[in-house]
Amino acid sequence: MSGSVPQPAEPGVPSPVDPAVPVAPLDLTGGYLGATGAVAVAVASRATPARWQLLLRRPTFYAGAGILLFWVVCAVFGYMFAPYNPLAQQLLFNNAAPSAAHWFGTDPLGRDVLSRVITGSRDILIITPLATILGTILGTALGLAMGYFGGAFDLVVGRLVEAILALPFVIIAFLFVVAVGRSIVGITIIIGLVFTPLIARTVRAAVLVERSMDYVPGARLLGENPGRVMFAEILPNVLPAILVEFTVRLGYAVFALATLSFLGFGIPPPTPDWGADISANYIGLPAGYWWQTLFPALAIATLVTAVILIADAIEQVLAS
Amino acid sequence: MATFLLRRLGLMVLTLWLLTLIVFFAGQILPGDPARATLGNLAAPSAVRALDHQLGVDRPLLTRYGSWLGGLLHGNLGTSYAYQTAVEPFIRAALINSVKLAALAFVVVVPLAIIGGVIAALYAGRTVDRVISVTGLSLSTVPEFVSGIVLLVVFGVELKWLPVTASAGPGASVLQQFRHLILPAIPLVFVLFGYIARMARAGTIDVLNSDYTRTAVLKGLRRTTVIRRHVLRNSLLPTITVIATQTGYLIGGLVVVETLFNYQGLGNLIYKAAVAHDFPMLEAGVLIIGVVYVVATLIADLLLTWLNPRLRLGGSQ
């Protein structure tokens, strides 16, 4: 994630910048994640000087960006530098323990675990950002409308959101995957749709704060239509809150995709995939073949942690 | 207070009704014919049609929804396609198992997360806070099966301290059951810790910045007294809500943990029902989860109103 995006031209009106580079506000309220935190961040966005450089002073940002960069390199160039073909089966060398030839050992089909871990990053790093972007766009639109129109619309949609949130998202997601089938496009859309109500709730909370500001009735009195008030006036002011929500959701998208894969509803085999590999090999644990599951598990954990470290750094900067 | 209660109950009924709609129609979009799934690929088309008729799935969608909803109102959760008997005993047994696991996780995580969150708030912005917050957030985004695998490898396979399956088998003592549930509960604790600690931290920071805390400090009360009498009592209110909302999430986590540890709980039941296209079982299981969530949220709301008189007054105006 680079930090080289220019600052917003106008003070107080953050431009839709690179998601990793927040428009830094001044805020003394001690922001935190969650609906209330989003509001704090949204309020903070009004403060003037853009201080995104602060991000570069956060050790957690460097740690997170470093790990993420490692996995991005693996996703892009992994097939070139992986020691073996991740799909090549060597049935005579199956279930081999880690050794000099196979650093992470081999799986029950004799495939090299290290190569599968390296190349397994590709699909996850394509699907999760796209799914999160989709969920953020839809959730933002819905949250803006709910917060802005209020009244019966808010009540009905709010109940619907509540009813959907009552169901664990893993369950909704796998119902959809069973219905739509396992394809990369389908899984991306499903994760995006499942995130929509969650993001809508956060955006709605931030919009409710904005709606009480003078500029909103001002814009309406100027004759601006609701769409313009929502997207041109309110949206820029809730962008920081959306940005924080986006990064956190990205972490949960990895969580969701890995979980779907583990349950057998993720990326179709034999494509290397961490969750699916764990699911396929964990029955080997009692037999002592720990390397087949432990290394993909650690891969998921490091990727998720990297995203969360970046999210935390962004949030800290926005709230500082 | 009465108006508030009525309004709250009305909204709950509305949410529950929407829930039945979502659950029913989500079940209908699943492809595949229930009779075909039950009888297998080799069954004669006439047998499939006969079973479809017997199961009632050849009736129009709205008729089926109506009779399903009517059954629910009479406490009838439906008849399983796969087992050809009422789903209720299956759901009940699975729910009891899941509640055991979830209760263990909750009993461990709630005090732990509150203490963690309060400590983080008292040291807000310092190293202790960053360590607790970032660790908590990371733990809560690491999927349960990932931490579960690591725990299984270390404590189950290598050290052999704890059993690797969650079911203790029939006739096991409470202590044995407890031993089997420790490993499955830890991943759930990890995931919940981050959420609850974050809310506890946020709530505590809000209260620490409040006027009455400043007054208490300025009038010379000892720090421990201020925290115990003024801060904690108020700061934990939002935490109650988040604990309630996490119950729904918890059961989602149970799907994974129960599959990994081969435990006959609600999550496992729903997963198997979805794979087998056993709609009545699936719908009943998902609906029960939704009801648990909605009721938990209601209880949290009532608890909050009882603990915080300001909400009570606001509600009756």
Question: How is this fold's topology laid out?
Answer:
The complex is a heterodimer of chains A (320) and B (317).
Chain A: H1 35-44, H2 59-81, H3 113-119, H4 121-149, H5 151-165, H6 169-180, H7 184-211, H8 215-221, H9 226-262, H10 274-281, H11 291-319
Chain B: H1 2-29, H2 34-39, H3 45-55, H4 61-73, H5 88-122, H6 127-141, H7 144-158, H8 174-208, H9 211-218, H10 223-235, H11 237-260, H12 266-275, H13 279-307, H14 309-316
Helix pairs in contact in B: 1-13, 5-6, 5-8, 5-11, 5-12, 6-8, 7-8, 7-11, 8-10, 8-11, 9-10, 11-12, 11-13, 12-13, 13-14
Task: Provide a descriptive summary of the structure in words.
The complex is a heterodimer of chains A (320) and B (317). With 320 residues, chain A is an all-alpha fold. Chain A is 64% helix and 0% strand. Chain A is built from eleven helices and no strands. The longest helix of chain A has 37 residues, at 226-262. The radius of gyration of chain A is 22 Å and the shape is elongated. Chain B has helices at residues 2-29, 34-39, 45-55, 61-73, 88-122, 127-141, 144-158, 174-208, 211-218, 223-235, 237-260, 266-275, 279-307, 309-316. Chain B is globular. The interface between A and B is large, with 56 and 62 residues.
Number of strands of chain A: 0
Low-confidence stretches of chain A: 1-38
- Shape descriptor of chain A reads elongated
Largest interface: A-B, 56 and 62 residues
Going by helix content, strand content and strand pairing, the class of chain B is: mainly alpha
The largest sheet of chain B, given as strand count, sense and whether it forms a barrel, is: none
Number of helices, where a helix is a run of at least 4 consecutive DSSP H or I residues of chain A: 11
Number of separate helices of chain B: 14
| Derived structural class of chain A | mainly alpha
Average pLDDT reading of chain B:
79
What portion of residues of chain B is helical? over 70%
Helix fraction of chain A, binned, reads: 55-70%
Residues in β-strands, percent of chain B:
under 5%
